[in-house]
Amino acid sequence: SWWRSGWRVCWVLLQTPPPSSTRAPPPSSTRAPGTAPPPSSTRAPAQRLKVRLAGYPRKHNEGRVELFHQGEWGTVCDDDFSISNAHVLCRQLGFVEATGWTHSAKYGKGLGRIWLDNVQCGGGEKSIALCKSRGWGNSDCTHDEDAGVVCKDERIPGFVDSNVIDVSENKVEEVRLRPVAATKRKLPVTEGVVEVKHRDGWAQVCDLGWSIKNTRVVCGMLGFPHERRVNKNFYRLYLERQKNFFYVHSVACSGTEVHLAACPLEFSRPNSTGACPGGAPAAVSCVPGPLFTPGGLKKKLKTSVRGVRLKGGARLGEGRVEVLRGGEWGTVCDDRWNLQAASVVCRELGFGSAKEALTGARMGQGMGPIYLSEVRCLGTERSIWNCPFRNVSSEDCQHLEDAAVRCNVPYMGLENTIRITGGRTRYEGRLEVLSTDPNGTQTWGLICGETWTTMEAMVACRQLGLGYANQGLKETWYWDSSNVTDMVLSGVRCSGTEMSLSQCQHHPTVSCQKAAAKFAAGVICSETASDLVLNASLVQQTVYIEDRPLHMLYCAAEEDCLSKSAAKANWPYGHRRLLRFSSQIHNIGRADFKPKAGRHSWVWHACHGHYHSMDIFTHYDLLNANGTKVAEGHKASFCLEDTDCHEGVSKRYECANFGDQGITVGCWDLYRHDIDCQWIDITDVKPGNYIMQIVINPNQEVAESDFTNNAMKCNCKYDGHRVWFHNCHIGDAFSEEAERRFEKYPGQLNNRISS
Ligand SMILES: *[C@@H]1O[C@H](CO)[C@@H](O)[C@H](O)[C@H]1NC(C)=O
Ligand SMILES: *[C@@H]1O[C@H](CO)[C@@H](O)[C@H](O)[C@H]1NC(C)=O
Ligand SMILES: *[C@@H]1O[C@H](CO)[C@@H](O)[C@H](O)[C@H]1NC(C)=O
Ligand SMILES: *[C@@H]1O[C@H](CO)[C@@H](O)[C@H](O)[C@H]1NC(C)=O
Ligand SMILES: *[C@@H]1O[C@H](CO)[C@@H](O)[C@H](O)[C@H]1NC(C)=O
Ligand SMILES: *[C@@H]1O[C@H](CO)[C@@H](O)[C@H](O)[C@H]1NC(C)=O
């Protein structure tokens, strides 16, 4: 088509550096534990010595003993250790007494100095520093002999924790990869030195004991499904020349964690080289999912790579979980739905681990079967189908309990090549894209509004990270235009599934009839959207043929509800043959569906006595084997209202008396088979096999979170007297293979007839 072009505006993904490219500031030393290093005297005052419990696995009242001395955390050797020592230490930690002690590094080996050895307390000392020992730092032990204590889980009343560093307060908040100089700065960054954010800033991780399981967790957090080994020598050469700043060490993930904070790990003093003796900063390499490999952005978003897909989400990597069984998609019940199961889904789809496991249909409700319940994944499974689950019946679980996920997705910088200006809120405005001329100069520019529709706006809002498009605007003259730029893009056409406008088609050179800024494309984005779906089983159950006398069809003829040949009929004698059925249109989205036109432009239909708010709300069609329309339903104008709602939802829209029109979330609008115009006129149709198709909101005039479920199709068999519908289903309910079988239906019959 004319807007397809071989030339593309050069979209630049890299104009701002990735978040990992700024040099990480070392953790601030002012907030580091040990604000004032204790005096080096062996008789440090009791309140000065910081004691903490560390190691793994352990509870809050047990662990390896660590002492903060001369600005460094170190351990205690188990030689000569006794319950009396443990009593002193536990009281220092704020517990009433000890119930035991451990030897031989039961909670794992510490790092750094072994501060005390041959400690012999009497039991009544206020601090371990007051007990007999070989003196600070004088020890012939190794970390294999680190001592631990088990304290009675009862706090000393009124104990103020100022002397105790609770290791659990230190949390890894975020992780990022710093690509090393030699690797190209392409997005996404899949390999580099791991840096973790904690309350004091960013720091590196000691690679001693680092395993591929840790890598898996890091990759998952960064949006990558798989991990691979790095070339350690390459990094060693590079890192030797760098100044290191460790803070985290002894990371020991099992690989199924969704966040590094959930892994056993330990914190050391910022910058302390002793924290990683002989080690280096951990580096990882991740394998991106198919969408995020080089050139992956050019590929279309393929939802059903495997037997699982996400539906109804505003952003990439989020949505209601749907699984495929027997050629038909169904949902997952949220009973016991958790991050491990959600992560299996995310990784299976080529994203990282799960950020959130959502319950209660937070991404809208499905319409089809509910297949799985009580999914229990370990987190290592390749597919959600490999996790144990329970089959559900409709009594066990309803679509109100549909499970959903938000996955970690790689940082692609997509939002950096697009911006909105001039609007009243941050969710609306005139669109600007960053383009690069052949000289490499980058400029922001506007988009021509002429081809701009809801579809293109959907892609723009997704790219902006602002959710769904509420509207795509062809004119934006009513917005502030003090700082407008030139138009750089025209003829933009998207299919709606693209991740960024750069994947859509557009004119090779800007060609816009009205090139003024006031005719530039704009968007109004929204975190929520409606989603209309037809009840397919009701259509199948209610279909029948009626031969309706013409004298009862004057009103219908006036509203254009009959096929063209009706005009040549001998009114009022004779009849029309009508294919009748009920349509029940549900709003399963998260925002009310409202007609695009305001009530001032609604049309009064005197014949039927109500206002029509949308010119084209549905298409009803009968198609033959090659997809040609053999009968077209009227372009039904509708009066939208809440006929009924799910339990607990109240009706809001009513047609009567020029009432507000729309469909509330959780409600449906029913057009019974016996109301006027609710039919397809098949008077001229020959017996045979056909496909009956209903499309709601066919021109996508009103925003929905999902347009792939707007069509409903049935196999239709007509023998000249009676009619049967089979396999009625929503457009996205079948697998591709099942859909192909469905489409073949008319052909099969034709073959049989001809043979
Ligand atoms: C950590 O290292 C940075 C730079 O390498 C330095 O500016 C900072 O003072 C150091 N902090 C401590 C606590 O030594
Ligand atoms: C669930 O139902 C399917 C199809 O009816 C059956 O094949 C499967 O074995 C059942 N699974 C469980 C766990 O009950
Ligand atoms: C590109 O660079 C060339 C030579 O430097 C210059 O003549 C030309 O005007 C530049 N084009 C643009 C669009 O800036
Ligand atoms: C327009 O641009 C100027 C200079 O960049 C800036 O100071 C001004 O605030 C902008 N006006 C609006 C309405 O954005
Ligand atoms: C769809 O229609 C069928 C048949 O009348 C009914 O049993 C079912 O509850 C309807 N589905 C929904 C979601 O309302
Ligand atoms: C489609 O089928 C109809 C009749 O079934 C036929 O008249 C028409 O030529 C066909 N069109 C194409 C494009 O094959």
The small molecules bound here are:
2-acetamido-2-deoxy-beta-D-glucopyranose
Task: Report Rg.
Answer: 34 Å
Query: Residue share in helices?
Result: 10-25%
Structural class: mainly beta
Question: Overall pLDDT, averaged?
Answer: 82
What is the oligomeric state here? single chain
Strand residue content: 25-35%
The number of distinct helices, counting runs of at least 4 residues, comes to 9
Outline type: elongated
* Spatial gap, N to C terminus: 40 Å
User: What can be said about the biggest beta sheet?
Assistant: 7 strands, mixed
Poorly predicted runs of 5 or more residues: 1-47, 162-168, 749-755
**Whole-number count of domains:** 5
Strands, total number: 42
Summarize the structure.
With 755 residues, this protein is mainly beta. It has nine helices and 42 strands. The strands form eight sheets. Strands 1, 22, 23, 24, 25, 26 and 27 form a seven-stranded mixed β-sheet that branches. Strands 8, 9, 10, 11, 12, 13 and 14 form a seven-stranded mixed β-sheet that branches.
